[in-house]
Amino acid sequence: MTSSPVDSAPAHNDRDPDNPADREYDPVDISPKSFWAKSARERDIAFAELRRRAPVSWQRPVESDLAPSEITGFWAVTSHELIREVSTHPEIFCSGGGIQLEDVPDEFLEAASSFLAMDGQRHLTYRRLMSGSFTPRQVKRIEDQIRDRAATIVDEFLTKGSGDWVENVAKQMPMNTIYEMAGLPVEKRDEAAHFADELAGWNDPDIAAGRSSAEVLNDALVGNLGIGLEFAETTRTCPRDDIWSNLVTSTVDGHELDDDELASMFVLMSFAGNDTTRTTLSLGVKAFVDNPDQTAYLLEDFEGRIDAAIDEVLRWVTPVMTFRRTATQDTVLGGRQIRKGDWVVMIYSSGNRDESEFPDPWTFDISRKPNQHVAFGGGGPHYCLGAFLAKMQLKHMLDQILHRLPELRFGEPDMLVSNFAAAVKTMHAEARCPVGH
Question: What is one GO biological process annotated to this record (predicted)?
Answer without folding.
Answer: cholesterol catabolic process
